[in-house]
């Protein structure tokens, strides 16, 4: 869904801005999504003993692999 926004600046010039609302919503939508992940039992035991936050580690790894930032 694309839209046009109209802004009136301090010097009274009109400015039209083309906005792709669907794309904007995707980029700012920060809802959590539950995903299942299977790991070996021994790895799970070690990670839980170390107090590792699985969700945080997965998010950081995905961001690194994708070359993205939050």
TrEMBL record:
Protein name: Uncharacterized protein
Source superkingdom: Bacteria
């Amino acid at each position: 869904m694309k839209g046009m926004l109209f802004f009136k600046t301090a010097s009274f010039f009109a400015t039209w801005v083309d906005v792709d609302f669907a794309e904007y919503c995707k980029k700012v939508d920060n809802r959590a999504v539950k995903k299942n992940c299977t790991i070996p039992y021994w790895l799970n035991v070690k990670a839980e003993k170390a107090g590792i936050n699985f969700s945080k580690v997965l998010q950081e790894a995905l961001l690194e692999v994708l070359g993205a930032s939050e």
